[in-house]
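Reviewer has doubts. Consider these tokens.
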Amino acid sequence: MDLFHPKLNCLLLSAVLISGLCEARTISMVTTNWAPYYSEELDEDGVITALVREAYSRVGHKTSIRFIPWKRAMQEGEIGTSDVVMGAYYSEERAKRFIYSHPFYEIKVGLIALKSLGVTHFRSLEDLKPYTIGVSRGWANSEAFDKATFLHKEEATNQILNVRKLFKKRVDMVVMAHGVFNYERNRMRQAIDQKFIFIKPLLGRKPLYLMAGKDLPRSEQFIDDFNRGLGMMIRDGSYEKILQRFGFTEDPGEKAADSPRR
């Protein structure tokens, strides 16, 4: 065989270039504990982690994951201490600093109050002026809500603290994913006899994304590889199978607010 044949050399060069672009590596992921979607307390670190791991596996990558406070997770993703931030909402401010993947799961986000407050709905954010609203530091909820400086928002370092503050009546209402609220409520003894309500309308249906620092050299490749793997999973049905395996065929937030605790 003539190893110096021009056509053969061209094919070998193409193979080298392709293998370089698709080089298997360990993608370092960072996020925060956010059960029931992802957390170091959950089996396989949660359904979202399982989806992302499988998507990267489809294109030859392994993954590692660390769970740290959310604000620090975004800082690490932006400067490249970690390759990607897992499970982020989109915001215009973040889009200036990060590249986003395709959306791969949807979260229902809204206001939640105790029934004793007597509030079931609002027509505009102005209606919420009289109330103290628990929010989580560094989290994006909806563009309009986050920019509403006229509202009385009280920050907590994480969403678990906000649920506790609600049941202790230290805030009037909280804003968070319905599924997260249900999960944390079911773990709290003090919540057994307290009735609550998901206030209408929702603040939004929030897709989840992966993010990678916009100014980092390999960020686009990390995101493109995830998108390719995700597309393979959707086409062959394995995406839906993972959701079913974790019991996420419906959003946990859809469960009735007054359903009995188990």
